[in-house]
Every structure is written in structure tokens, then in C-alpha cells.
């Protein structure tokens, strides 16, 4: 009986930890397009935008997407480690605003081109100022 109780406690603890992780993730990421305007991405992967700060003043912002977006097996993914460098292996990069969608054709590890991949940058980037 003590083993069964311990299993129940561990299961409940894991559920609480995973629930808290989702809350933290939601608080850390998202919806930069709600407070930023005129966002664009240049050929090097640098994003520029005009974003409101906490006092609702417009600030000109720059963000190197290579630090936040990775090519994993031919698909674009958010990279929290700061070493994404998607531009090294992706081409035909396009960015849609106000949706915040980044699209590119990226190479797979063997060198073949994968189909076009797209990523909603609102899932990776937030306006924190």
C-alpha cells in the first residue's frame, strides 16, 4: 500500500510541475505583433520593428533571428539556446506582417532541400520592454 501512495504522490507532483511549466512558457513568449508595428526581416535574418514600451512610447527595436530560430531537419523551430543560425542553411526567407509568420526553404542534414517550412514568430518572440 505505501508504494501505491507514493506512486499517486509522484504522479500528482509531475502534473503540478508540468502545469507550472506551461504557465511559465506562456508568460515568457508570445504575441509581439500585438505591440509592434512595421516589422520586417532583412536578408541577414535581422528583424526590425517599432514597438511600444511599458510607458506606451514607441521604440525602434532590432533582433537577430539567427539567435532565436533554428533549422532542425529542414524545418524552422524556436531555439531558446541562442544558437539557432537558421540563415546558414535556409533560403527564400519571407516574413509576413502582421501575422508574424516566417517562412523559408531549409536544407536537411544530408543536404537535400525540404519543403517550405513556416513558423509563427509569436510563439518565440515577445515584446518585453
Automatic annotation (TrEMBL):
It comes from the Eukaryota. Residues 31-127 form the Cyanovirin-N domain. InterPro entries: Cyanovirin-N, Cyanovirin-N_sf. The keyword Signal applies. SUPFAM superfamilies: Cyanovirin-N. Residues 1-21 form the signal peptide. Keywords: Signal. This is Cyanovirin-N domain-containing protein. It comes from Ceratopteris richardii (Triangle waterfern). The lineage of its organism: Eukaryota, Viridiplantae, Streptophyta, Embryophyta, Tracheophyta.
Amino acid at each position: 500500500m505505501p508504494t501505491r501512495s507514493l506512486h499517486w504522490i509522484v504522479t500528482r507532483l509531475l502534473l503540478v510541475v508540468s502545469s507550472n511549466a506551461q504557465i511559465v512558457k506562456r508568460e515568457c513568449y508570445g504575441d509581439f505583433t500585438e505591440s509592434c508595428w512595421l516589422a520586417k526581416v532583412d536578408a541577414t535574418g535581422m528583424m526590425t520593428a517599432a514597438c511600444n514600451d511599458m510607458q506606451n512610447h514607441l521604440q525602434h527595436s532590432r533582433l537577430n533571428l539567427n539567435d532565436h530560430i533554428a533549422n532542425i531537419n529542414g524545418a524552422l523551430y524556436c531555439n531558446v539556446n541562442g544558437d539557432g543560425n537558421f540563415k546558414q542553411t535556409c533560403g527564400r526567407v519571407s516574413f509576413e506582417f502582421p501575422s508574424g509568420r516566417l517562412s523559408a526553404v531549409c536544407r536537411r542534414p544530408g543536404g537535400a532541400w525540404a519543403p517550405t517550412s513556416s513558423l509563427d514568430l509569436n510563439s518565440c518572440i515577445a515584446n518585453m520592454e
